[in-house]
Amino acid sequence: MKTAVSFYGAFCLAFFAGLFLPTSARILAQEPLSELRIYVSGVSASQGTIRVALYQEAGSFLDFEGVAAAAVAPAVEGQTLVVFKDLLPGKYAAALYHDANNNEKMDSNWLGIPKEALGFSMARLRTFGPPKFEDCVFAVTGIQRIDIPLENN
């Protein structure tokens, strides 16, 4: 019982101490967050979803474990908007695909070539594979807009 009381007391102390800090001290302690708006063009149908992953390091680019942030939006024929809120300012690379059958994975043929439309920030597919991280990097500060066309439709 003593542990529960001391935990509760410590929680209350920390919570109320934060309330009484000067407003300027609380604001300065937080880094301002950014918003990223990705406009995906070339969406062939209003079925399935558009799935987007953001990466911040070359070594983890296109690796599931290296995703810095992810978002999903219902596909809208023509153009779909995908929004990331509360991102830390910095450099990112985006990779996305139209999950037309909504099975939550990129479908590919027996050679591993994607069967679903995909796209990358600032770069296009190369003849034999995806672009490099360095070709896809863009900066996010404040409210940022980027346009990404789908390829491989």
Secondary structure topology:
Elements: H1 2-20, H2 23-29, E1 34-43, E2 49-55, E3 69-74, E4 78-87, E5 90-99, E6 118-120, H3 133-136, E7 138-140, E8 143-149
What does this structure look like?
The protein is α+β, with helices and mostly antiparallel strands. The protein contains three helices and eight strands; from the N terminus they run H-H-E-E-E-E-E-E-H-E-E. The longest helix has 19 residues, at 2-20. The termini are far apart.
Please write the string of helix (H) and strand (E) elements: HHEEEEEEHEE
Tell me the number of helical segments per DSSP (H or I, 4 or more residues long). 3
Largest sheet: 5 strands, antiparallel
> Which band does the percent of strand residues land in?
35-45%
- Rg estimate, integer Å: 21 Å
Structural class: alpha+beta
Structural shape? globular
**Amino-to-carboxy terminus distance:** 63 Å
The residue-averaged pLDDT reads 84
Structure summary, number of beta strands: 8
Low-confidence stretches: 3-27
Measured as a percent range, the helix fraction is 10-25%
Question: What key phrases describe this protein's structure?
Answer:
153 residues, alpha+beta, 5-stranded antiparallel β-sheet, 3-stranded mixed β-sheet, globular, disordered N terminus
